[in-house]
């Protein structure tokens, strides 16, 4: 995208149906894309910090699959795909955590802003 700042963001909010067993449940999905000018190695290091914070504060588990960090905890899962000039983040919240979607989204955006500062 032209004319955006180096760490600009775009957030997409949606609800996606998830089918489990015989019932259907609705979950909140948060998607955001961030531009950066830090390079893949520096961004990967900062994404690792985010993952360590998730692990410490929320008892989340995480692992890397190539350039994508995948994380999960009870009631939530997602990934952060690291690119040379951008990040793509997706968080899926289960039915109970969907009520906290606004809080989760705000916290996510604040943490991404903090970590992506040059």
Structure write-up:
With 118 residues, this protein is of the alpha+beta class. The chain has one domain (9-116): 2-Layer Sandwich (TATA-Binding Protein), CATH 3.30.310. Helices cover 30% and strands 43% of the residues. The protein has two helices and six strands. The protein has helices spanning 40-58, 101-116, and strands at 9-20, 23-35, 61-65, 68-73, 76-82, 86-93. Helix 1 (40-58) crosses helix 2 (101-116). The chain is globular. The two termini are 20 Å apart.
Furnish the topology, listing elements before pairings.
Elements: E1 9-20, E2 23-35, H1 40-58, E3 61-65, E4 68-73, E5 76-82, E6 86-93, H2 101-116
Antiparallel strand pairs: 1-2, 2-6, 3-4, 4-5, 5-6
CATH structural fold name: TATA-Binding Protein
Distance separating the two termini: 20 Å
Shape: globular
Main sheet overview: 6 strands, antiparallel
Count of beta strands: 6
Order of helices and strands: EEHEEEEH
Share of β-strand residues: 35-45%
The CATH first-level class comes to: Alpha Beta
In which range does the helix fraction lie? 25-40%
The number of helices is 2
Specify the CATH architecture: 2-Layer Sandwich
Helical/strand content category: alpha+beta
Number of structurally distinct domains? 1
Q: What average pLDDT do the residues reach?
A: 84
**Uncertain regions: pLDDT < 50 for 5+ in a row?**
1-5, 15-24
Q: Numbering strands along the chain, what is their spatial order in the largest sheet? A: 1-2-6-5-4-3
| CATH homologous superfamily identity | Alpha-D-phosphohexomutase, C-terminal domain
From the alpha-carbon coordinates, what is the Rg to the nearest angstrom?
A: 15 Å
């Amino acid at each position: 995208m032209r004319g955006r700042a180096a760490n600009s963001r775009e957030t997409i909010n949606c609800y996606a149906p998830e089918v489990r067993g015989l019932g259907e449940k609705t979950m909140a999905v948060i998607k955001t894309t961030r531009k950066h000018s830090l390079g893949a190695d520096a961004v990967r290091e900062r994404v690792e910090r985010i993952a360590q914070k998730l692990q410490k504060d929320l008892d989340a588990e995480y692992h890397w699959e190539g350039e994508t960090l995948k994380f999960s905890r009870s009631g939530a899962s997602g990934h952060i795909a690291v690119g040379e000039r951008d990040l793509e983040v997706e968080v899926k919240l289960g039915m109970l955590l969907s009520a906290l979607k606004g809080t989760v989204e705000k916290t996510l955006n604040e943490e991404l802003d903090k970590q992506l500062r040059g």
